[in-house]
Amino acid sequence: MRILISALVGVVFIGGLLAQRPNNEEQVRQAVQSFHAAFNSHDFGSAEEYTTEDWNHINPFGGWTRGRDAVLKELKEVHSTLLKGVSSTIEDFSVRFASPDVAVVTVTSRSSTFITPDGVRHENERSIRTFVVVKRNSRWLIMQDQNTFISR
Length: 152
Description:
- By secondary structure, this protein is of the alpha+beta class.
- It has a single domain, classed as Nuclear Transport Factor 2, Chain: A (Roll), CATH 3.10.450.50.
- The chain contains 2 helices and 8 strands; from the N terminus they run H-E-E-H-E-E-E-E-E-E.
- A hairpin with a 5-residue loop joins strand 5 and strand 6.
- The chain is globular.
């Protein structure tokens, strides 16, 4: 009888964990989708709602910016010049949980045309971005992202 009760408790516990996963996944997706919405609107004014204070950003040219304030300064500069008017469309979205409080999100997207400072025209360019999203104070927030152009 004890074995049956223990097994039942285990099943209920595991079932409870699994039941939470879709909600967690939905919240993780929302954080990343908020980033993409900000990218497309060129307004990162509500970044504190979906990023950590210690957010790190690695851009497709290899630049590594540390801390939300520094990342937002860089994004504001880039989106008012190089990426002004550029939009990004998500093509694929994958969420994997490394632990109950850490998710790794991989997103492929396609951007509208832009020209980089070296004069290279990026037309219909695809990129792959990896996000590390962490659960802090019951909220899922982007802690790190890296964007890489997909070679043709």
